[in-house]
Specification:
Elements lengths: L6 H62 L3 E3 L5 E3 L16 H6 L9 H10 L3 H7 L23 H12 L4
Length: 172
């Protein structure tokens, strides 16, 4: 015959499995976000390499066109390929050798140090000056209550994926 379990034990068992269900589901999301972050990094590296390859192909093609005196190639699917004339651009790079002489000559600007004003306000110094010249608001940001998933020590992230998939009935 079957075993009889107390009502308290059954409720405890159900609560424990609900916690596992919710916890593994959220850990699964964390794992998938981490996986997407890694894929994004890889895709960004691939994108950079492809842009470099495109630039090399365009420059090499332009060199070949110039070497053979080709101005334009007509295509069936592509209207045409032509040489783009060089487009020179210039930027000015400033390297400062004597900052103090330039400051003395008037090349500077005064900027309010808001961090210092807040520090003095919080310490109670110069309150008359601060209150007379600015308004101070205390902004309160209440973050909504969230679930916190406490991972069991030694649980591997991949394990949480397979467990949550089993619980949710998802085939891998």
């Amino acid at each position: 015959m079957g075993q009889k379990f107390s009502k308290k034990w059954v409720i405890f068992y159900q609560k424990k499995h609900k916690a596992d269900y919710i916890g593994f589901s959220i850990l699964s999301i964390d794992s998938k976000v981490a996986s997407l972050d890694e894929e994004i990094k890889e895709l960004q590296q691939l994108k950079k390499k492809l842009k470099q390859a495109k630039e090399i192909a365009l420059q090499t093609g332009a060199n070949v066109f110039e070497e053979y005196g080709i101005d334009k190639l007509e295509g069936a699917g592509i209207s045409s390929i032509t040489l783009a004339k060089p487009n020179p651009s210039s930027k000015i790079k400033l390297t400062i050798h004597n900052e103090y002489k330039l400051i003395e000559a008037g090349f500077y600007r005064k900027v309010l140090d808001e961090d210092a004003v807040l520090e003095f306000y919080n310490s109670g110094k110069c309150l008359d000056t601060i209150n007379a010249n600015c308004s101070v608001e205390i902004l309160r940001d209440v973050k909504p209550t969230k679930l916190k998933i406490n991972k069991r020590r030694g649980v591997v992230a991949n394990n949480s994926d397979s467990n949550s998939n089993e619980i949710l009935g998802i085939a891998s």
